[in-house]
Write a structure and sequence with these properties.
Order of helices and strands: HH
Number of strands: 0
Shape: elongated
Structural class: mainly alpha
Oligomer: single chain
Length: about 80
């Protein structure tokens, strides 16, 4: 009677891809949630009055630009061709 080799291990569902798609998805979801939270908190500050609203809007602008710059990958190392 012929014998068969046992099946190989199952493929990894979460994990170790070369392009690390799961980690990028987590970062994108974090960026979206922080941006939405920043916008809602800024809107709430406008209910307190126009002065707190303007101060919150100025601060929110800086936070949203920082999230955008992070999403564009400006802070990542670039591979060298040398």
């Amino acid at each position: 009677m012929a014998q068969m080799a046992p099946p190989g291990p199952p493929p990894s569902v979460v994990g170790v891809d070369d392009d690390d798609r799961v980690q990028r998805l987590r970062v994108r979801l974090w960026q979206i949630s922080v941006a939405v939270g920043t916008i809602f908190i800024t809107g709430w500050f406008f209910t307190l009055g126009w002065i707190p609203g303007i101060v919150a809007a100025v601060l929110a602008k800086h936070i949203l630009v920082a999230i955008l710059v992070m999403g564009l990958g400006v802070d990542q190392d670039r591979p060298s061709d040398h």
